[in-house]
Amino acid sequence: MSDDPDRNIGGNRKPIAIRPGQATARSLPRRFYNSVEVGAAGTDGACTILLDGRTARTPGKRELRLAPRVLAEAVAAEWDAQRDTIDPATMPLTRLINTAIDGVAARMADVAADVVKYAGSDLLCYRADYPEGLAARQRALWDPVLQWVEERHGAAFETATGLMPVAQPVAASQRIAEAVRPLDALSLTALHVMTTLTGSALLSLAVLKGRLTPEAAWEAAHVDEDWQIAEWGEDAEAKARRERRWSEMQAASALLRLAAA
């Protein structure tokens, strides 16, 4: 797998950019509130995040109203953990939710279609033909996911060796689109983030549906990279970048889990 999040194997295309950004140290605002509370649930079951009794808002000035309450409590904990300044880098759930509310909610069809495009050139469909140890490791981790996708969603994907694009059956993309269509903005945001991080809509769908743990999906997404590390060692900068991306993966999977609680 390429370590470039904007490159999808077999496609070389730029994805929709919805991954939340981070403020620089110089631009961090000072903490402007003393208390953080979760408001009472409204008739729709959503709870507000209250900062000194006032409803917290997204950068787009929309109210932070979340359901279920356990999700609101997790977000409130991020706000409460801030000290002298507010650092978005330490608020991964809040950042994802802001992205969902301010960005994804207004373009659900486009974001869902981008996930389906990833499936059309999914990481799991591009195999190594050598060395045999790497090819065997890919089969061991990737084939069960492809089998599950076919059994669960009726989507049969073709595999090939090398990086040349493989034309997938139209029916397979249609089945993935059907699986993604019912998602709300929070779940779709989390799914898209996991897809861009792993290069695989199918691994991300398996996490969404509980077929894989986030850890198992992350391991499967890094088969090629881990093989290279075992052969040649690991660069410190690449290791740090991978750790940051794993933190994003954990936040996205946590959002899925809490939103479904």
Biggest β-sheet strands, sense, barrel: 4 strands, antiparallel
Q: Which structural class best describes the helix and strand composition?
A: alpha+beta
Per DSSP E runs of 2 or more residues, the count of β-strands stands at: 6
Radius of gyration: 20 Å
Helix/strand order: EEEEHHHEHEHHHHHH
* Total of DSSP H or I helical runs spanning 4+ residues: 10
**Relative helix content:** 40-55%
Tell me, briefly, the overall form: globular
β-strand amount:
5-15%
Tell me briefly what this model is.
Helix content is 51%, strand content 6%. The protein is an alpha+beta fold.
Tell me about this structure.
The chain is of the alpha+beta class. Helices cover 51% and strands 6% of the residues. The protein has ten helices and six strands. Strands 1, 2, 3 and 4 form a four-stranded antiparallel beta sheet that branches. The protein has a two-stranded parallel ribbon with strand order 5-6. α3 runs antiparallel to α5, α6 packs antiparallel against α10 and α7 runs antiparallel to α8. The longest helix is centred in the last third of the chain and has 24 residues. The radius of gyration is 20 Å and the shape is globular.
